[in-house]
Each structure stands twice: as structure tokens, then as C-alpha cells.
Hints:
With 347 residues, this protein is α/β, with parallel strands linked by helices. It has 17 helices and 8 strands. The protein has a single domain, classed as Rossmann fold.
Amino acid sequence: xxxxxxxxxxxxxxxxMARLWKGWLPAAVRLEADVxxxxxxxxxxxxxxxxxxxxxxxxxxxxxxxITRNRTSLGTVNLVGDVLDAxxxxxxxxxxxxxxxxxxxxxxRCLDGSIVPGEPEPLCTLLTPYxxxxxxxxxxxxxxRRDALLRSMVRIFGQRRRPGDRRxxxxxxxxxxxxxxxxxxxxxDVPWLFVYRNPVDVMVSNLSRPxxxxxxxxxxxxxxFGWSGEQLADMTPEEYCARVVGSFCSAAARSAxxxxxxxxxxxxxxxxIRAVMEAFGVRPTRAEQARVExxxxxxxxxxxxxxxxxxxxxxxRRVAGPAVERAAERWALPAFSVLxxxxxRLR
Length: 347
């Protein structure tokens, strides 16, 4: 005999929900299934930041192999984001890939009480453009649901994990630059930075060590950047790379308002990092500036902080080759030049 529940249990109060979800972090958002899922880890005080969020998650799982895990629907993101004690974003970092953005992120991590997730995959995944093969439901409903999820996910990554937490910065992945207009609409008052570099240097790095947007299947490239399958089939790797990095620069130039700061890789030094911090509402102390200065001498993607930074611009120019130079000149350098002449550039 089946039993029907006449009086379902009520939703726990906000205070109870906040206690239940305190310390939980989303490890990944999976869009492949019919029903997108979120994978969670009970990080508690065990989480330690790294230059990239995925590396921090991997390190956490190695240190704590029996860490408590959970799997929920996307809707849970909104419930969790609504109850956690979270900081408002102090600043956002966007970039055109392989251009020094991690260096800036690491400098911000030198500030006392700062939370600086680096390209958190769950947040970046939510910016995946609409496609019925990716997102459930109709396009008409999707934008509002996506916006709510983005607001909630940003709150979750900004949750206070330590008593001294008081500053919160997010570095997005490079491909999220083409959705800059979405982020600006949702957080119009948050100052933001775009880090860029000569496209030839960026292309040499991306062609030698291809990032995710270089290795996407054709249908995902179409989804993110709009080119048809026929157009993509006719593109050389150099043309595709140049077009993509050019689109990142163009998106930044279109969105550059009074809250924007534009930073050329060649200009990254302590005074300009300090200018970025001041644009984000922070006046670093002498002790913080000393830590920042030290961080600028270290290779940004080395979690151990032991590898010294060495410039590679001259090497990249030597190995670029005619195909890279021609593609950069046609598809990327015009947008790069707009940024370099823009009044919001930090000089």
C-alpha cells in the first residue's frame, strides 16, 4: 500500500540554509546531460587559492581525498546564493588570453582579506551562449534564468570563509570577454579591467599551447563566436586564432565605459598595478605593496612562487612567422590599436 504525504516538510529557514551550505563550493557545472548538474565540494577552511580555480580544486581533492561531495540541479545555485553571507564584487578582470592577467590576479591576492578566484569554471560555464542542445528550455526563458544563476554564482564565490575577508575580485576566462555586455548589464557599478597584449605574442602562445577555445569542436566555436561551419572549415589555425583574439579586443573596446581600465601587458609595473587597485577602490598599505612588488618578480602561473619571471616578448616575435604576422595584421591588430589609443588605457 502506497502512502501519500499530505503535509510536505517546509523549506528550512534562511538561517538554517546558510549554516547547511556554509563552506560549500561548486567544483563544476555539467551541461552535457539533459538536466544540467552542479558538482559541489564541502571545502570549509581547507580551500586554498591558486592562479587557476581548477588547480585549486584539484589540489584540494588531493589533500582531502575523502572530502564531502554533492550533486544538485542548477536551481540549487539560486537557493544557496540567496542565503550565504557574501561580499559584493570589488572588481572584475577580463583579458585576451596569455597577456599577463594572472600576474594582475596574483597581485590582488597580495591584499589583506582578498578573495580572488581565477577563472572559476562553474561561473564561466554559465556564460555559455544559448543553444537548445546545451541549455534546457526555450530561448525566451533562458536569459532571465541565466542572469539569476550568474548573480547567485558570483555571490557563492564571494562567500566569507574567514573573518577578515573584505575584498572580492573575479578573473574571468578569456572567452568570457565576448559576453562583457552581459556582465556590465548585471553589475554596472563594478569597476573592471581588461588586460591585453600585442596579438602576435598572444597568438604564438595560443598556437603552441592551444587553450580550450582553440580545441573546441566546430559547433561550439560557432556557438561562442558566431562563424558558420563552412567559414570555420576555410580558416587556417592562424586566421581562427587572430579572429578570436581580435573579437576579445573588440568586445572590450565596445564596453569600455567610465568603470573600465585598460592595461597593456608591456605597461604592467607596480605603479599601474597600484592604479588598478585604486580603480577597484583599494589603497594598498606599504606592506601590501611590498608583497605586490615581490609577486611581479615571480612567474604568475607557478603556484609555488619559486620560479622567477622572465620576459618572452623578443622570443615570441622571433618565432612568430609570416602566417601569424599576416593573420594578426588583418584580424586582430586593428582592434588592439583601438584599445591602445583608448582614453581608458592606463598610462
